[in-house]
Amino acid sequence: MAVVDPHYLWAAGHVVMLTGSFYILLQSIFFRSAPKTYRASYTGALVSYCIVVFKSLGIPSLNRAWAQRAFADENVQYAVLALYWWISKPISITVIPFATFSLFHTLTFLRTNILPKLVPAAPPVQPGQPRPPPALYDRISRGTQLWVKTNYDHAMKFVAYAELAILARVVVGVFIFRSSLLAPLFLAHFIRLRYHASPFTRIAVADITGRIDSVLLPRGGAVENAWVTVKRVVSTWGGGHMLPGDQQPPAGAAAGAAAGGARAAPRR
Length: 268
Description:
Low-confidence stretches: 245-266
Family: Belongs to the PER33/POM33 family.
Keywords: Membrane, Transmembrane, Transmembrane helix
Pfam families: TMEM33_Pom33
Membrane topology: Multi-pass membrane protein
Number of domains: 1
Subcellular location: Membrane
Mean pLDDT: 84
């Protein structure tokens, strides 16, 4: 029996997530639900993340060292989040961050693994002969590589804002009885982990907090006190600090972290 290459299985999971997300979001425009597609999409995401986690961390071990490594690994965090959305009541917009990651991984996989097999390599240029114009494959490959490289940071910023929008959605959902109370608590803790690991999340949190400050603080009185209390509780929840001004990374740390994220992106 033929054995499936885990790399192809990883890519297939991303393709399922990407195509399923497109269908889910299209259905939501017409106020229709697609629960089967929703769970199939997250199944694809779980397959991809589990393969990456297994390759990076190895077989799970019941010891503190492995648990600490797993807890700090962003792929484990996203795998746990995908599992939570998989078992929860479907919320269409939750697929947006995962679909964004899957878009980049799918394009990279097509460029590096599929296109070279579909299009033969160009023959070598003999000395003294003029170099022919780039073949269609070369133009597509280079164009895809350039697009991925150019838009990576923009996509990560978009994901950071999307995760905050999803948090707002589940908080509102609690009050209108469309989300469980666990959903905002779970997602808030996830975003807290992302805040300490991702400069994109820190930028998004600072931006949104500043916008809310500009609206609520001038009102004074009970409104200002309530908002300040909410910020204090959120910033100190679970220990440490999460207010935008509490934790200033060293100069260049954000850029370094962003570059590290770009290098680590294929792992997801």
